[in-house]
Amino acid sequence: MEMIGATAIVALLASVLIPSVLRQMDQAARTKEANDLNSISNAIVLQILTTKTIPDITGLPQAIANWTRFPVSRINVNNRGFTRSFLIDTNGWFGTTAGTLPYTQTTVGSAFAPTNARVIVLGVIANRAPISSGTPGTVIFNDVWNTAAGVKPTTLAGWAGKGEDLFIQRLNLGQLFHRLTVVNRDKGALTPPGLMIDANNVVPVNLDGRGTNGYYLDGSVVGLWDTTNGTPMMRVALTRDSSFAFEGGTWLNQVLNGDSNEVMAQDFAALAAQFLASQWYPGAHQGGDQQGALVAMFDFMLVYGLWANQCPHFPWHSASSGTQVPEYELLYDIGGNSQRLSEFTGTSGLLK
Predict the structure, then answer these.
(1) 48 and 80 within one domain
(2) Per-residue pLDDT reduced to its tens digit, 138-161
């Protein structure tokens, strides 16, 4: 009787304690999986920035293992023995020629803005993964991407697990890229200047007022060369959207480069800083950003100023003879020709 009574008490205590112990074990597993997925996403970013390469789905686990020093088996399968899934969004940049995976950066960079370059890593602590690694399509990918924590995606309603057992780690790799604009305006250069990214080949920057644009990974080393002498003139680590112009035999950093005592320059710098720090309106930028808009505006203002002042290599644009600029004709007439000052200052003169 004593044995039966003791067994009954043990059974009663077990029925009370076991669920609590299991909940604590599940909570520990959830914390572990969330931390592991965060480490995996960090490893993906660091591996990409270090190697300047974005692997495809089959190469992601090995790339992560290279950085974390964990075996690939630890990346593909968690501590509870459930397989993780890697999903790629092919609706955006990964669907273009420039974004085709694996992607290896060259001096040319990406001609397309890497919008929607998104990756999802899924982890579960109960039941099997709701979807296998791959490219699930736009509808499913967006549904999983936009699903809140602890909720089951509507497109994966057939999965037997609970929302709290599913972990979604999101990576937008487009944020790792910066826009680089290089312009060659030096008509007097014997050979075009050169551009080199990291240790890749030097490519010529041809004479083109529009310039060339490319998108490069953060930390890329931009080498700006004088190909006449075959030497680099400037090296800059790319940490934000930037632009450079080759003019007068040298490379210039165009936007907000250096200090100025000019009041207008200070006002412009203050407004530019305020514009750069302003908040985006969701959906309004269409792939652009404040830095790109500021670069485009500054480029226009700079080119217009050079054109208006006939410097350094713009054709004359006189409306009268077509052979001399109005400023030249004004000085010539006043200083040494017919002294016809009234033609410029009179009632109908050019200066009125």
Answers:
(1) yes
(2) 999 999 999 998 899 999 989 998
